[in-house]
Structures are given as structure tokens and as C-alpha cells.
Design goal:
This protein is an alpha/beta fold. It has one domain: Glycosidases (TIM Barrel, Alpha-Beta Barrel), CATH 3.20.20.80. 38% of the residues lie in helices and 13% in strands. The chain has 15 helices and 14 strands. The longest helix is centred in the middle third of the chain and has 26 residues. The chain is globular and about 60 Å long.
């Protein structure tokens, strides 16, 4: 028996990011953002770590973000498909460089502002709530060149100006906001997460945690602005979640798993509780880190905490202190994980762990006692179009069915979850690999890794399945 626990106002939908969907990377006055410097192929991961060869796109490289799936020009067509599925919400991001092309322009770019006005109007016309991320891996390149991005305190004020501009502009249209996408990614892929570039001799750890402090203060100032400008809105933080399991019951493995989790929770502890936790302060001491803070920072962080916790969940992770065990690591996972013998893996090496979704949701709610919003979850896979023009993605339906069932169990456990926006409801460029063949969507886009294709949209088998899930408010997940 399946007892659906989803509340009547549950926000079913999907999630995309400007830099992975929009394209039009220089249209209507937009400036370059960091993702516009990420090519497809082997070089991409090295650049995401902070080894950046050029601040301009190179002629001999292909940059998938430059056109992506052309959502910038085709959003009405795509929203019509989301409406057909019955979406209640669509998570999108605003490209900072569409609004302030250099990051510090005297006035915002009206063409960029108007695009998002039109996008939000189209969503609202179709009874779809916009869920808007202020910063989704898109620092303006001009700020990276001039200031070194988030290593410089200057970005706090520039981000606050940007946030106030869009909050004021869209205060009557957007009631759900997020500050930074997967803020903990800064530690693992620092160029992707924060536009950080390193040179020989840099104290990389010091730079990363100083940048993290600047982002945390900027996030708190955005929360403050949202509460003042849009009193009936809510604004959350967001982390790339997924619990670390100890490989054995050896206390050393258990302790390491706790410490691995804390690498991510550290950010949310500050955003949700308003202060640096004791373990973070010890970490700074033990590693000789001196985080520069201005006198008012502690007060800003304490007074302006988030309303809810947004998180992505794709897989759990496993950790061990045994060198023999750590020889067997999974591929493709940004966080690094020992292979879990109890779990299957995706084509890209990500463990598939629906029960871990329930575990993670419970841990987050127990820790913060604030509403949760699942803003990313999905399966990247190679989809093939049959000669009949169909995409039979039963593997995706199976993945999502099992994860939604565990989310339902978490709600029955007492976890408050306000919505579920699965990742990439339409095929978009993969953030980690830059590929199009790593597809997540209910809608196939005719586009390959080299940028070839008609961009035609095709409903997959999962399209009708998710439509059924939404119509039944999660009560009917299929056979």
C-alpha cells in the first residue's frame, strides 16, 4: 500500500539554470560569466578547479553555454510543455551578467531585466510559480579579472546591489528565492562555485574559506533585502547534499564521515543559525586560517538567516580511512566516494541510493528545523530516439519513482518539505561535463556534444509519467 503524504499546496516542477539552458550568451548586452569560459571535454574539469588559461573564449574550443538549448529565445515553447505536465513551479536562475554586464555598471541592463520580466510573466500566466536563484555559477568575468572574484570583499557590496535590483524589480512576481546555488561547491570546484583562479604559491585553502565568508555575508544581505522589499516572500539557501556513510563501524570511519558531512553543513549552519559553528572555528585554528571579518559581519549573519533549506540530492557518498579501501573510488562524483557495494551506479559513476534521499532529508530537518525544498534530483543518462521518434526512458522513471517514494516516507517521518523541482526537466548542458548526452529531462532536445542538431523538443516516456505524478499529487507513481 502506498499512502501519499504530500500536502495539497506541494510545489511540483523542475529546475534549470541560466548558464545551462538560456544560450544567447552575449545577446542584448549580456556580459561574459564564468561558465562561458568552460569548454566541453577534458579541459573543463581542470578549469572548474581554478586553472584558467584565458578570460576570453578561445577560437579552437567549443563552449556549450554559448547557445545551450536556446531557452532565451524558446522559453514560451518550453513553458507550454511544462504547463502540459502540470508544473506548479519552475526553478530558474537570473544571470548576474544579464543585469550588470561587468558586475559594477552604473545602471542595470534594461534588456536583461525585461527578459526575466517576460519569463516570469509567462510562468505566472500558466500558474507556475517562479523559484529564482540569485547566483547559479555565473560570476561576471569582469569581476574575476578585476578583483579576483569572491576572494575580494568588494564583491559583497556588488552582489548586494545586484540582489536589491532584481528583488525590487520582481517583487510582485517572485515569492520564492534562493541566494547561492550549491554554495558548498566552492570548496570542491572553486572556479565553478565562486570564480576563483589560483596561481603558483597561493594559499588555496585560505582563499577558499575567505571567499566562503564573503559569500555568506552577501547571502545574509540578500536575505535582509528580500525580507525588507518583499515581506510576503521566502528566501532560502541551497547545498549539494548527500550523506557520507562510514564504510565500516570503525570509529575512525564514522568520525571521518561526520567531518565530510560538516564540510557542507558548515555553510548552511551559518546561513540557517547565523553564526560559525565551533567545529568550523577549530578547523580554522588547526589549519592556520585567518578569516578576515569586518566588525558588522557577525551581526549581519546573526540577524538575517534564511527561511528554508533548499538542497540537491543525486546520491549518497561513502568514506573510509583504510588505504586499501580507498583504492576503489567511484568515478564522476565531485565529492569523491568509496564504491558502496550495496548500491548500483549511473553511467557517470554516481551511486543510486533512494533510501539515502530519505536519510539526508531527515538529517537536514533534524539539524535545522526549517522547511526543506528539494530543488534538484534526477538521473543523468544516455537517451536514444527510436526509429519511431520515441524516447523510452524507463530507467529514469524507475529512478525518480523510487526517490519520490522515499521523499514521501520522509514527509511521513515528520520532515516538512514544501516542493520538489527535479533537475533538468528538459535536456540541458551538463554542468560537470559540458555534455548534452548526459540527459536528465522529460523532454529530449535534439542537440549533441558538438552543438549540432535542430534543437527540436520531443516528449519522452517520462513526460507522461511525471504528468501523472503531479496530477495525483504524488499519489500515483505507476506500477
Amino acid at each position: 500500500m502506498y499512502n501519499s503524504a504530500f500536502p495539497e499546496n506541494f510545489l511540483w516542477g523542475g529546475a534549470i539554470a541560466a548558464n545551462q539552458a538560456e544560450g544567447g550568451y552575449l545577446d542584448d548586452g549580456k556580459g561574459l560569466t564564468l561558465v562561458d569560459l568552460l569548454p566541453t571535454g577534458d579541459k573543463r574539469r581542470e578549469i572548474m578547479k581554478g586553472n584558467v588559461p584565458s578570460f576570453t573564449p578561445l577560437a579552437d574550443e567549443f563552449y556549450p553555454s554559448h547557445e545551450a538549448i536556446d531557452f532565451y529565445h524558446r522559453y514560451k515553447e518550453d513553458i507550454a510543455l511544462f504547463t502540459e505536465m502540470g508544473f506548479k513551479a519552475l526553478r530558474v536562475s537570473i544571470s548576474w551578467a544579464r543585469i550588470y554586464p561587468t558586475g559594477e555598471d552604473a545602471v542595470p541592463n534594461e534588456a536583461g531585466l525585461q527578459f526575466y520580466d517576460d519569463l516570469f510573466d509567462e510562468l505566472l500566466k500558466n500558474n507556475i510559480q517562479p523559484v529564482v536563484t540569485l547566483a547559479h555559477f555565473d560570476v561576471p568575468v569582469a569581476l574575476i579579472e578585476k578583483y579576483g572574484s569572491w576572494r575580494n570583499r568588494k564583491l559583497v557590496n556588488l552582489f548586494e546591489t545586484y540582489a536589491k535590483t532584481v528583488l525590487e524589480r520582481y517583487k510582485d512576481k517572485v515569492k520564492y528565492w534562493l541566494t547561492f546555488n550549491e554554495i558548498n561547491m566552492l570548496l570542491h570546484l572553486p572556479f565553478l562555485g565562486a570564480g576563483l583562479v589560483f596561481k603558483e604559491g597561493d594559499n588555496v585553502m585560505q582563499i577558499k574559506y575567505q571567499a566562503a565568508h564573503h559569500q555568506l555575508v552577501a547571502s545574509a544581505l540578500a536575505v535582509k533585502a528580500c525580507h525588507e522589499l518583499i515581506p510576503d516572500a521566502v528566501i532560502g539557501c541551497m547545498l549539494a547534499a548527500g550523506s557520507f556513510y562510514p564504510f565500516t563501524c570503525n570509529p575512525e570511519d564514522v568520525f571521518q564521515g561526520m567531518e565530510k558531512d560538516r564540510e557542507s553543513y558548515f555553510f548552511i549552519d551559518v546561513q540557517s543559525r547565523g553564526e560559525y559553528p565551533g567545529y568550523a572555528k577549530r578547523f580554522f585554528r588547526d589549519h592556520g586560517l585567518n578569516i578576515e571579518m569586518e566588525p558588522g559581519d557577525a551581526d549581519i549573519l546573526k540577524k538575517h538567516t534564511v527561511d528554508y533549506i533548499g538542497f540537491s540530492y543525486y546520491s549518497s557518498r561513502t568514506t573510509s580511512t583504510d588505504p586499501e579501501v580507498t583504492k576503489n573510488m567511484t568515478s564522476g562524483n565531485v565529492f569523491g566516494s568509496v564504491a558502496n557495494p550495496y548500491l548500483a551506479k549511473s553511467e557517470w559513476g554516481w551511486t543510486i541510493d533512494p533510501k539515502g534521499f530519505r536519510i539526508t532529508a531527515n538529517q537536514l530537518y533534524d539539524r535545522y528545523q526549517k522547511p526543506l525544498f528539494v530543488v534538484e534530483n534526477g538521473l543523468g543518462a544516455v537517451d536514444e530516439v527510436t526509429p519511431e521518434g520515441e524516447v523510452l526512458d524507463d530507467y529514469r522513471i524507475d529512478y525518480l519513482k523510487r526517490h519520490i517514494a522515499e521523499m514521501n516516507e520522509a514527509i511521513q517521518d515528520g520532515v516538512e518539505i514544501i516542493g520538489y523541482t527535479s533537475w533538468g526537466p528538459i535536456d540541458i548542458v551538463s554542468a560537470s561535463s559540458g555534455e548534452m548526452k548526459k540527459r536528465y529531462g522529460y523532454i529530449y532536445v535534439d542537440r549533441d556534444n558538438e552543438g549540432k542538431g535542430t534543437l527540436r523538443r520531443i516528449r519522452k516516456k517520462s513526460f507522461e509519467w511525471y504528468k501523472q505524478v503531479i496530477q495525483s499529487n504524488g499519489g500515483n507513481l505507476g506500477d
